[in-house]
Backbone:
């Protein structure tokens, strides 16, 4: 069975290659690995969602297929793509749906200076109907990203199993186990938020995974610690802007903790790792959204001069 597929598009002109790279990046695609030697160059792009489509045309009907494209791209927001294309100074050959918002589908063609022709097609957002295709999501590709794991030594019988699940999850997402994973140990769950915040403030990590285990006892100590740990981790994530994945178990019994550390309920450390990778990619996708997607209107500073005050005697 085929588990993955790599699609490649050949660009004949180097200027078109550079311009297309800028265009795809402006449209929100995340850059991957780049390569260049004496024979040519390549740039990998990692969209949040991929689909493989085969097309066979029996005949050209009307003008909708009158222009053959070297590369066809289906996008989630075609109107914003038009703004980005125009901002880059590219020529739009045809826009079959036009700017009228009543047309649900927008289909337009762009020609690069070197002659390469691109086709963009996508559904517009409407107040009614399915808008799930417009959602911005993070993927589970951890290549090139760094993660820190803060793990409590208290209840190590559980936390060490959670830690193994975190490492397993990160490695399965493509994270380098030796270069891009930092493990920090703290005495107990109460110290996890402080260590996580210190790591996040360094800005060296794309996400922090917090691991601990709290078991309910006969006193109110459990409730106090659980609330403070949860609040501290959430506050650290909000104030530093670095995603924090919560892998701190709060269980009534040891049996419940064991079930959540790799037995009946799966491994919550593994789930926290996947959440960390997804949020790291989502944070990067949001921060790299092109400014052209907005209205394009900038606030102008008022040119009216304030009247000068008369000197007082």
Residues:
């Amino acid at each position: 069975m085929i588990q993955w597929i790599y699609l490649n598009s050949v660009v004949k002109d180097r200027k078109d290659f550079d311009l297309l790279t800028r265009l795809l990046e402006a449209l929100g695609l995340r850059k991957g690995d780049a390569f260049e030697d004496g024979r040519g160059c390549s740039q990998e792009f990692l969209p949040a969602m991929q689909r493989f489509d085969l097309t066979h045309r029996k005949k050209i009907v009307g003008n909708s297929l009158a222009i053959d494209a070297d590369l066809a791209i289906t996008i989630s927001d075609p109107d914003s793509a038009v703004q980005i294309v125009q901002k880059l100074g590219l020529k739009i050959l045809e826009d079959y749906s036009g700017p009228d918002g009543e047309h649900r589908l927008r289909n337009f063609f762009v020609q690069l200076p070197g002659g390469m022709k691109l086709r963009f097609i996508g559904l517009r957002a409407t107040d009614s109907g399915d808008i799930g295709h417009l959602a911005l999501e993070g993927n589970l590709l951890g290549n090139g990203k760094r993660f820190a794991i803060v793990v409590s030594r208290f209840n190590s019988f559980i936390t060490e199993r959670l830690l193994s699940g975190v490492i397993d999850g990160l490695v399965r997402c493509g994270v380098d186990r030796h270069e891009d994973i930092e493990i920090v140990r703290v005495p107990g769950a109460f110290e996890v938020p402080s260590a996580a915040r210190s790591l996040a403030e360094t800005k060296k990590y794309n996400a922090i995974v917090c691991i601990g285990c709290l078991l309910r006892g006969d006193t109110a100590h459990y409730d106090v610690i659980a609330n403070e740990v949860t609040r501290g981790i959430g506050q650290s994530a909000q104030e530093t802007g670095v995603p924090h994945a919560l892998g701190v178990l709060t269980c009534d019994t040891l049996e419940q903790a064991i079930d959540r550390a790799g037995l009946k309920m799966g491994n919550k450390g593994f789930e926290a790792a996947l959440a960390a990778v997804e949020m790291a990619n989502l944070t990067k996708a949001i921060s790299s959204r092109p400014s052209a997607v907005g209205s394009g209107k900038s606030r102008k500073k008022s040119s009216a001069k304030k009247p000068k005050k008369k000197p007082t005697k």
Notes: The two ends are 91 Å apart (CA to CA). Residues 14-51+65-125 form a domain with the 2,3-Dihydroxybiphenyl 1,2-Dioxygenase; domain 1 fold (CATH 3.10.180.10).
